[in-house]
What does this fold into?
Amino acid sequence: MTLILFNKPFGVVSQFSPHPERASLGDFLSIPNIYPAGRLDADSEGLMLLTDDGKLQHQISHPAYEKSKTYLVQVEGLAQPALLARLRAPMQLNDFTTLGCHAVRIEPPQWLWQREPPVRERSNVPTDWLAITLTEGKNRQVRKMTAAVGLPTLRLVRQSIGPLSLATHPLLPGEWCVIDPAEWLRD
It folds into this structure.
């Protein structure tokens, strides 16, 4: 059983097959028979887990296991307490209702790498950083949630999945490492 942590760069698609316009996982990893356990959209960055074990892939990615995923989110606007309260509560989005989540304002992460290309800056519009922790993961959910409360996402970085984190396994974008699957199972 193999478990790989990968720091997905901005603009990379979460698939191994070649993409006509973007880099894919196959441009960074050439290990046979591994598959992503969950996805990140091309506009998001950060931690992905990959494995060659179907049972482990299911435990990582299926919402029934309620593994938390923490995202660092730079938003346009200021995250006032009322907006944070709305983010924490279940929210009706177009095609689903979210579960409640943990959402707090944080200081800009000093350890975070510079994104290429850089996030656009507008001198007359302030930005804030949030840490949002979900136990589900619908398509573009965090982006839809922040937009629904009037705080559009400028940058989204998945920091952790369950017990595994870029804080304890520091990897730059495009880097990966093989870890002991027991690290996943300890949670």
Q: What stands out?
A: Residues 54-61 form the longest helix (8 residues). The longest strand covers residues 153-161. Helices lie at 54-61, 81-88, 141-148, 182-185.
